[in-house]
């Protein structure tokens, strides 16, 4: 686990792969967000920023600046929206 001076929290697996990126005062860098998720967010929520992204063996969880949370499976199919 790493916390940057701007409050961004990063968690890594034992293999060094990121598992969580939580940006409290900014947005997650677009280069970290998988293209299908980035495309879904930009097409459906163009004015929102990705504040947090988690990944595990089941897929990805994304939290937007409007507080909506999305779950995507490993094939990047949307499986849940939590508002």
List keywords for this structure.
mainly beta; seven-stranded antiparallel β-sheet; 1 helix; 12% helix
Would you give an account of this structure?
- The chain is mainly beta.
- Helices cover about 10% and strands about 40% of the residues.
- The chain has 1 helix and 7 strands, in the order E-E-E-H-E-E-E-E.
- The chain has one helix at about 35-45, and strands at about 1-5, 10, 20, 50-55, 60-65, 70-75, 80.
- The protein has a 7-stranded antiparallel sheet with strand order 1-2-3-4-5-6-7, with no helix packed on it.
- Strand 5 and strand 6 form a beta hairpin.
- The longest helix is centred in the middle third of the chain and has 10 residues, at about 35-45.
- It is globular, with a radius of gyration of 12 Å.
- The termini are far apart.
Please tell me the overall pLDDT: 94
Q: Radius of gyration, rounded?
A: 12 Å
Give the helix tally.
Answer: 1
Profile the largest sheet.
Answer: 7 strands, antiparallel
Number of strands: 7
Structural class: mainly beta
């Amino acid at each position: 686990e790493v916390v940057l001076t701007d409050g961004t929290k990063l968690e890594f697996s034992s293999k060094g792969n990121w598992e969580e990126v939580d940006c409290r005062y900014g947005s997650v860098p677009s280069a970290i967000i998988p293209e299908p998720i980035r495309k879904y967010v930009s097409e459906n929520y163009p004015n929102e920023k990705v504040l947090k992204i988690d990944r595990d063996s089941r897929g990805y969880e994304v939290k937007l600046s409007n507080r909506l949370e999305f779950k995507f499976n490993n094939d990047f199919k949307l499986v849940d929206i939590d508002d």
